[in-house]
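Notebook, bench 3.
Goal today: get a predicted structure for Sugar phosphate transporter domain-containing protein from Astatotilapia calliptera so we can plan the truncation constructs. The sequence was checked against the plasmid map this morning, with no discrepancies at the termini. Length recorded as 336 residues. Pasting the sequence as submitted so the record is complete.
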Amino acid sequence: MSLEPCEETAEHSALLKLLSALFYAGSSFLITVVNKTVLTTFRFPSYLCLGIGQMITTVIVLYAAKKSKTVQFQDFDKNVLLKIFPLPLLYVANHVTGLASTKKLSLPMFTVLRKFTILMTMILEAYILRKTFPKRLVYSVVTIVFGAMIAASSDLAFDVEGYTFILLNDAFTAASGVYTKKKLGDKGLGKYGVLFYNALIIVIPTVLASAFTGDLHKAVTFEDWVKGTFVFCFLISCLMGFVLMYSIVLCSHYNSALTTTVVGAVKNIAVAYIGMFVGGDYLFSWTNFLGLSICMSGGLMYSYMTFNKKPSGSDTGAQKLKLQISEESAGKYSKV
């Protein structure tokens, strides 16, 4: 068996891991700001319909890319539902609770409480993917959660509904990340198939649910549809929804689900501190500021250890195996 693919993966893995992480961090930052503008600044009444717009955009973009043969993924058949379950359910739950919590909470508190996703992801990876973690990475995760708890303890704008949505969003995000990593191993679906069928399968039930609850009517009758600035922000949010989902899948493909989650947390250092000066809904306190700083230091520590780690024992073993095979091959040719 040829070892060239393994060699190529090892050569590019470090760069691809870093670039995919930066891509995800940038996408996550931008969509948080855009969603906050649509839902809070313009007071768009339906976070559910905003999620529907993002799903429809994902379907349209990937379908057009498949037709133009820019990307490839499995055609739809009855096996697709079994392959991708339960990702569609986690996908829509993650979208809905994420948009709802964005509307209810200030940007800094939103980013603080999102840190609990990291602990949940670590637990699910250990339980579902049977992964183990070095103690230093566990310590960095504990530092992140500890800082988040300190920061959240000073929230003077406590919102029970908002806190409920954000904690549910943490759980759904963790489960979605772990199962996405698991499903990416399916060669039939691949990165693009996971994205496409997630959105396609869930968009119609979500539209029906939105219509049943009256959410769709509120969105359609929203008075700011005549404003070009709102329409522009809404369309950007829809497009960024696709970009964010793609960046998450890409980052999960080259990294672990936990690393993808921590990258999102590190990104939040910019959102948190910008939110102190932009938006007008942040109530400053030194306790909150200290908690944010502790939380972000843990995230940066995790990122440093992850992206600057030396080759593991398994990598060294693979290199020794490759060397041994090369020597054996050379010996055979010399005998001939």
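Confidence is low (pLDDT under 50) at residues 1-12, 311-336. The first helix runs from residue 4 to 41.
Flagging this for group meeting.
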